[in-house]
Design brief:
The chain is α+β, with helices and mostly antiparallel strands and about 170 residues long. About 30% of the residues lie in helices and about 30% in strands. The protein contains 5 helices and 7 strands.
């Protein structure tokens, strides 16, 4: 009936609720399922790395340690109560690392990712590291703006060595 672009235009300026919360152990499967969309998106940028398995699924790392390790935090992202994405945060004691961050296409471009990222940064006080794949234009446009906003311009960016495939942002 109506496309996502129309919905974005129609809802522009309307404040809707975006929330993040820790995913429960019962929601491991939910995170893994949303991860399929994340890997599908990433396969465009890293086709040699992400390939479908014989079972028709993408296979990435096992996220089970995020529920077993007290230095790892699995989050679900919601928008108006609907699941909108996920994030994985790691805390090595010195800095917080945004290991994975994904918002479903339906929720992109309406402020969900921005709100979720700012909430995550505020929840985990201290220095942060965010990686952005250079081949991903959405990521490359998004992270500098959000990090600039959160850090009031106090951040550094460098190329990840030795592969030089990611920008690495440090702030906080």
């Amino acid at each position: 009936m109506y496309g996502f672009d129309y919905i974005r235009w129609l809802t522009k300026g309307i404040k809707m609720a975006t929330t993040v919360r820790l995913a429960t152990p019962k929601e491991k499967g939910v995170v893994q399922n949303i991860d399929q969309f994340y890997l599908y998106e990433f396969a465009r940028f890293m086709p040699g790395y992400y390939k479908l398995g014989d079972d028709g699924l993408f296979h990435d790392e096992d996220y089970a340690p995020y529920w077993d390790d007290d230095q790892k935090y699995p989050y679900l992202i919601f928008h108006d109560g609907e699941k909108a994405g996920f994030a994985l945060v790691e805390d090595n004691g010195e800095e917080r690392v945004l290991a994975q961050f994904f918002v479903l296409y339906k929720f992109q471009g309406i402020g969900v990712a921005r709100s979720a990222a700012l909430d995550l940064f505020a929840l985990h006080v201290g220095p942060w590291v965010v990686h952005s794949l250079i081949e991903n234009p959405k990521s490359e446009g998004f992270w500098p703006k959000v990090i600039e906003e959160f850090s009031a311009g106090k951040f550094t960016v460098a190329l990840q060595e030795p592969r030089r495939t990611h920008h690495v942002y440090k702030f906080g």
